Every structure is written in structure tokens, then in C-alpha cells.
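Exercise 7b. C-alpha cells:
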């Protein structure tokens, strides 16, 4: 009986310590996720392209920074529109005209984002040699690229980006 109580106490303590360790792990917020994606995408292009010159790297860095800033402005607008849509949806008497207008606005923002992504990619491509373009054109872009490096859990950032530690 005494041995059984001792075993139970030890198992309880081990379970408590394991749960405590899991809870104490640092999380990754939305802002960190965006920063990780920015850094991973930048590192991905720079480390996977063969023989990038210093000039090419500098120009690509500048393009990335400009692109990230312009996309952040659209992401902020998108967040505002989604919050507005949420508010409209939860009204006692939802106004369908207002809801449809916000949905249209969200669609226009998504179109802007896609156009900016394609333009950004083509601007980078224009800086490359023919050999580098072959490698660059094989690289996935957009959500496909992000999903490739994600751990499979939504909102966890690019923890599996193989290029994060090479900055």
C-alpha cells in the first residue's frame, strides 16, 4: 500500500512537471510571425540563389524592405475591414448592403496584394542573371512558399524556415 502511494505521488509529480514545462514554452505572436516571414523570405531568396553579387543582395534587400512596408499598410487596412465586417455581422439587424460593401473592399485589397506580390517578384527577377533566373523561377511564391516552411499549426510563424539561422 505504501509503495502504491509512493508510485502515485512520483507519477503525479512527473506529470505536473511535464505540464509545467509545456506551458512555460515561449509563444509567437502575430507581429513576430510577420517578422519571421519577412526575414525567412529575404533569407530564402538570398541564400538559395547562386552567386549573388553584393550589389544584387543590396538591391534585393531594398526591394524587400519597400515591399514589406507597402504590404503592411494593406494588411492593416485588411484587418480594419475584417473587424468592420465582424461588427456588421453581429448587429441585431445586419445591414446586407453594408456587409456586401465591406466584402467588396476586402476583395479589392486582396487584388492589390496579389498585384504587389507579382510586381515585387518580377522586380527581383529583373536583377538576376540567366543562371539565377532558372533557380528563382523554380521557387514557389506566396502561400505555397509559406506553407512549405510552416509546422502545420496556424499562426505559429515560420519556425521551420531552414534559412532563419543563416542571417
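Sequence design result:
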Amino acid at each position: 500500500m505504501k509503495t502504491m502511494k509512493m508510485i502515485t505521488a512520483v507519477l503525479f509529480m512527473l506529470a505536473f512537471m511535464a505540464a509545467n514545462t509545456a506551458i512555460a514554452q515561449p509563444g509567437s505572436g502575430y507581429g513576430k510571425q510577420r517578422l519571421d516571414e519577412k526575414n525567412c523570405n529575404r533569407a530564402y531568396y538570398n541564400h538559395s540563389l547562386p552567386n549573388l553579387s553584393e550589389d544584387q543582395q543590396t538591391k534585393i534587400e531594398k526591394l524587400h524592405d519597400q515591399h514589406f512596408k507597402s504590404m503592411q499598410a494593406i494588411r492593416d487596412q485588411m484587418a480594419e475591414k475584417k473587424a468592420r465586417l465582424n461588427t456588421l455581422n453581429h448587429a441585431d439587424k445586419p445591414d446586407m448592403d453594408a456587409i456586401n460593401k465591406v466584402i467588396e473592399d476586402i476583395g479589392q485589397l486582396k487584388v492589390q496584394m496579389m498585384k504587389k506580390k507579382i510586381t515585387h517578384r518580377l522586380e527581383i527577377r529583373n536583377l538576376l542573371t540567366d543562371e539565377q533566373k532558372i533557380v528563382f523561377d523554380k521557387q514557389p511564391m506566396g502561400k505555397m512558399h509559406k506553407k512549405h516552411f510552416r509546422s502545420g499549426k496556424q499562426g505559429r510563424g515560420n519556425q521551420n524556415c531552414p534559412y532563419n539561422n543563416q542571417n
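Instructor comment: The longest helix spans residues 54-89. Confidence is low (pLDDT under 50) at residues 143-160, 162-167.
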